[in-house]
Amino acid sequence: RRHAAGALRNLAAAPRRNKFHLVKHGNGSLLGALTDAARNDPDMAVRTRVLATLHNLTCADSAEILMSEPGLLDLLADFATAEKFDDGEEDELTTLAYRTLRTIEKAVSSDMSCHDDLHKVLHRVAATRNSNAQNATESPSD
User: Fold this and answer.
1) Residue 86's pLDDT is what?
2) Do 36 and 44 meet the contact criterion of CB atoms below 8 Å apart?
């Protein structure tokens, strides 16, 4: 699974026109499989590679399709607001999810139907991340 996720990550680092075809592949079945793997795979390395794939797929041509994938926006928000752990892979997941949301934000224009939903999620993510950062600075150090 790690190799397959890594291969998809590399394929997704393609020119914009190819990213559009990848997200449309199989009537969106690739996006569904990636979303499912990111949420449910027990191997954190697979999850990290899947999130890297989603990040690589994000561009102006694919953003609206990504936004329409059921559960994907919530998945990214959940990972982007996860508490920081000592495990480096958790931090990498959080960073990848947040960067993917920010990349989608840059690609979505105000006239797109998904614009308002995206901004609601981004505001929620920002508030949670700020709260987490504040709590981390207020925690007594050992």
Assistant:
1) 53
2) no
